Amino acid sequence: MYDPEKVPFPIPVDFSKKRSFMKLLHKAYGMDKLNENDKRKIRATYYGMVTRLDSLLGMIIDKLKERGRYDNTAIFIFSDHGDYTGDYGLVEKWWTGFQDCLLNIPFIARIPGFPPVGKKETMMEMVDLYPTILELAGIKRLHSHFGRSLVNLLKGKEDRLREAVFAEGGYLKTEEQCFEPALKGIYYEKTTLPRKYGPKVLAKAVMIRTSKFKYIYCPDDINELYNLEGDPQELHNLAGEPEVAGIEQALKEKLLQWFIRTVDTVPHKRDKRGFF
User: What's the whole-model pTM score?
Assistant: First the structure.
């Protein structure tokens, strides 16, 4: 469906200042044996898959209109994650991969009665979908959560939602119960990496992303810091450089605040098993 010669070439990579999983995954999947044309074919195929999904969505919308349900149905379109599609010498995704090609996913909403507000340049997290649907449906929340409703944004009353977004992933080496069982076929190498190469492949990591910076803290591997204004492809890891020490410390502080604010919460109702 798409000419491989006309798609953008994937983002290059220098593994020397990247976390360990990237180089290991690159080799395990045989990506080191592919040439430029192979990588373009991967991306062209992915574009075709996106177009296929768009066609299927159109069928759903046509059916809603046919059944007279379109005008009273809220529609949300999003994905759970992106795909490397050759970027950084990788394909698919990884549990602790925090590049924008994985985390910057599409999100489109169409709400009956809401004016079309067009594209919004702001950050959100998928946890924000939950309180949005509750508000639209008039349902009272029954437990604590950390999402922020998008309703005012979707109505055009606000232009920004969050100043920073967060992501976390990975396991401790003692958490073998979290490792996927070895699967036959195309996922075999992926599911055997932790046992083959040790805990660094899935080392716990956490990310904070603002409009200008992305910082990844990984106690059992290296940290990463990118100035997204000058380096949107996240090619130059600045973590540990003296000139950005203040920025790195400030972002680490924001991570600590986020962990404290999103730690275990008290239930809304008293537990009958308690003493009070």
Answer: 0.91
